[in-house]
Amino acid sequence: MPNYRVPQVFVKTGIIIFVMVVMWSCSFFGDRKKGQYIPVSFDLSKEVGPFEGLGVNVPISFYSRRMKALQSFNELGIKYIRVKREDENWNDILALRSSTSRLGIKWIYSLDAIPINYIDDSGRLVDVEGFAGWWAEEVDELLYQDVPADFIELLDAPDTSSTDSLSLTPDTYNALLHATRKELDLRNFQDVAIIGPGLSNPGITGDMETWYMNLDQQAFEFVSNWTVHMWEDRIPGEHLDPALGDLLNYLEETESTKPLFVNSYASSETNFNGVTYPDPDEYDVLGNLSTYKTYYYSATFTMPYALRVYSNTLDMLHHKQVIPFLYQLYDAPADVKYKKRSWGLLDLNGGEKPVFTLLSNLLKRVPKNSTVVRPVLSDASLNGIIFKDRTDIVLTLSNTSTEKKFIQVNLGGSSRPLEFVSGVSCHSPEILLPEHGQRDEVEILEEQVKLRLDDENDATVFSLQLKPQSIFIGEFQYK
């Protein structure tokens, strides 16, 4: 076979053409990738308001030192706890008091049902004065036991009627406010604030509106903080942010500047990405009994649920003077065994569920006395927020979708340059199916981002890849 030699000029020409094709390909695909980046913008000069911490509901029908309440409150940045009085639970209340006194946590004291002495056969409150006196005696006993009664909530969800919560009418509630305030003042409990009305949802149409409009001027002033429940299944459209915004706009129109305690929230959703998990309100899967790794299991043990609660938390913190109360700090044994309920952030052994891991990793990094900045977003599966003080910035983004997201974050509105300090991402390497009956594990990885200046828009910019069903937390400083 003849041995032909390719002329040198053709070799050089081929190399040049190859290099040009590679450069063109890189440029083409590079430009296309830039177009895939989802913009997320923050204007650091536009602050929503101060971050005033979180609250949490603590079950005290069975208080366990295994729960490490002091450590949990610290990691979640808890400023308020909401507890409910039950028969024979003074010892539990006093044990909990020892964990909160060192942290300056304020107490909200609520009630599920009116004592039977003050209601008729249909469960309606008929002895308003008597019930008001009961509340004053209860506060007196709390203070005698050296337990703070910073706030009292006269009845949880008085607009609903069930075995746990007996309904009031708006007019009766108005009378109860007057009577209770009078009884508290007669005993020199002027510092004990009344909050309410604790409605089951934030709707302000129809009958809901009367709970605010039927209050006379004095009763309106007696309420120091509005309270409301926020759950997706009780809200048209199933999104917390717009519903909360509508309520706040309505209250502003009624010339109310009171802070709002969202006294109970988490997520009522149990179907995520086409998979239905056991309902935390009545779970029906006892876990993977063959491995004995757990003996009860609900949606609260999963990463998708944790991400929804995380996003709901950010939604509420996007609004000024709103303090969200996580529904339940830990699983109470009586709830799990007898009621088949599993709403806690911690399991029966004090182990962290994914929702606790996500929230604590964010909140333990938030600067003290920080303010909140909300983002401009274009993707419904993303959410985010910034907490900042004079020197530090903590930014978080969440991705609830099953797809990786390529994001470009734009930090504008700052007169000082920024530098990146540290970052972490939290995700589950494997989202387990319900038949496993096991908690999703959360992996925490260190992340780096490279800041660059966008002189044209006077902003600091960085790119980020968010894993499917994950969060990112970044810490920055002003130079």
Provide a descriptive summary of the structure in words.
The protein folds into 2 domains: 37-45 and 373-478, Immunoglobulin-like (Sandwich); 50-372, TIM Barrel (Alpha-Beta Barrel). By secondary structure, it is an alpha/beta fold. The longest helix is centred in the first third of the chain and has 29 residues, at 8-36. Helix 9 (303-317) packs parallel to helix 11 (354-363). It has an 8-stranded parallel barrel with strand order 3-4-5-6-7-8-9-12, surrounded by 4 helices. It is built from 11 helices and 21 strands.
List the helices and strands and how they pair.
Layout: H1 8-36, E1 38-43, E2 49-50, E3 54-57, H2 69-76, E4 78-84, H3 90-100, E5 106-110, H4 128-144, E6 151-153, H5 170-186, E7 193-199, H6 207-213, H7 217-222, E8 223-230, H8 240-253, E9 260-265, E10 271-272, E11 275-276, H9 303-317, E12 322-326, H10 333-339, H11 354-363, E13 371-373, E14 382-388, E15 392-399, E16 405-412, E17 418-427, E18 443-446, E19 452-454, E20 459-466, E21 470-478
Parallel strand pairs: 1-16, 3-4, 3-12, 4-5, 5-6, 6-7, 7-8, 8-9, 9-12
Antiparallel strand pairs: 2-13, 10-11, 13-14, 14-15, 15-21, 16-20, 17-18, 17-21, 19-20
Helix pairs in contact: 4-5, 9-11
Features of this protein?
single chain, 479 residues, alpha/beta, Immunoglobulin-like, TIM Barrel, 2 domains, eight-stranded parallel beta barrel, seven-stranded antiparallel sheet, 29% helix, 24% strand, globular
